[in-house]
Design goal:
- The protein is mainly beta.
- The chain contains 1 helix and 31 strands.
- Strands 6, 7, 8, 9 and 12 form a 5-stranded antiparallel β-sheet that branches.
- The radius of gyration is 30 Å and the shape is globular.
- The chain starts with a helix and ends with a strand.
- Keywords: Membrane, Transmembrane, Transmembrane helix.
Length: 350
């Protein structure tokens, strides 16, 4: 009998302890009403604007800034020099041939380089390379189907690259080459598979060009300087220029087309056109005074900046905000303005 009681007691002890533990949890942790706040934490890294102060030669040519402002590049007559503005370090992009043209991609830290091969005296080829500034690596544009590097035979040695336009989402590149003579231009379309074809367009003195991605895919927009038209590669006419000269300024991420209206390379109105809407719904900005078209900068986000070199300031006409800078204006980038004073390049944040 004593043994049975002892067994029952020892059996009940852990049961009682477990029940006491559950009572404690219920009383202090789950008792009453509890409110929970759930907060989303963004673990992705966020780009912030950094202070830029780097040195370049005073005679540096073709000074350009990446979209992020993380890199500044220039041509020293033999190679491209790329400066990391975060680390203030410099890398050299060795060129195997003559530099014809280069530009930073729309919103990456990559450079597209067009080189003209040194071949025979009668004709030369265009070759293209992508320089990845983050990895300090150069890759030739290579056709994935044929496993061959892209090479474009120019009609003769007098041709050079004049413009490069990126379509954005479809990763299509448009390249125009021309001589210094009027009416001798060619436009090449390079798709994401690095396949190339000639673009049919109205034969004219070709001006600026840009690209959009519409409902029917990518589309080229270009200036017909001969007949004063802004045209599309599919044969459409966006602006006729009946009462003034029209100048293609740029396109943005929403496939809007920015057209300057004026005379003698000066703009007094800016139209924000779209192939998706009729002209009556286009935005229009009237400028207080005429501005040289080369002093107007349209960003991919749709901001319109006007550089006033006399007062050393840039004004965003979409918001009215003014940004002052020192020295000579170089470029607008995502976070501000780059200017040069002697050998020194600095930034002024918007």
């Amino acid at each position: 009998m004593k043994k049975l009681k002892r067994i029952i007691v020892w059996t009940m002890i852990p049961i009682v302890m477990e029940l006491a533990g559950l009572l404690l949890v219920d009383k202090f942790y789950f008792g009453g009403d509890s409110n929970f706040n759930i907060k989303k934490v963004d673990t992705t890294s966020k780009q912030t604007a950094n202070k830029i102060s780097v040195k370049i030669p005073e005679d540096a040519k073709m000074v350009k800034v990446s979209y992020s402002g993380n890199y500044i590049s220039y041509y020293d007559g033999q190679s491209l020099q790329v400066i990391d503005t975060l680390k203030n370090s410099k890398k050299e992009v060795d060129l195997q041939n003559d530099l014809s043209y280069y530009t930073w991609n729309l919103d990456t830290d990559n450079i597209l380089v067009a080189e003209k091969t040194s071949g025979g005296s009668e004709s030369r080829n265009l070759k293209f390379e992508t320089y990845d500034a983050k990895r300090d690596s150069t890759y030739p544009l290579k056709n994935e189907e044929k496993k061959q590097e892209l090479s474009i035979l120019l009609p003769d040695n007098s041709y050079d690259v004049k413009h490069i336009a990126f379509s954005g989402a479809s990763n299509v590149i448009y390249v125009s080459s021309a001589t210094n003579e009027e009416g001798s231009s060619r436009i090449y379309r390079i798709d994401v598979m690095i396949r190339m074809n000639l673009v049919n367009f109205v034969r004219c003195q070709l001006g600026n060009m840009a690209a959009i991605n519409g409902t029917n895919g990518d589309e080229l927009i270009y200036e017909d300087r001969t007949s004063n038209r802004i045209r599309t590669s599919r044969g459409g006419i966006i602006a006729t220029g009946e009462n003034a000269m029209h100048y293609l300024l740029n396109t943005d991420n929403n496939d809007n087309i920015y057209i300057g209206n004026g005379e003698d390379n000066k703009v007094n109105k800016i139209f924000v056109a779209s192939l998706k809407t009729n002209k009556s719904s286009w935005k229009e900005y009237t400028l207080p005074s005429s501005v040289n078209k080369n002093n107007i900068y349209v960003t991919r986000s749709g901001n319109i900046y006007i550089n006033d070199s006399k007062d050393s300031q840039v004004k965003d006409i979409t918001t009215g905000k003014v940004t002052k800078y020192s020295g000579n204006f170089v470029s607008v980038y995502k976070y501000g303005v780059i200017s040069q004073d002697g050998k020194k390049l600095t930034n002024s944040l918007f």
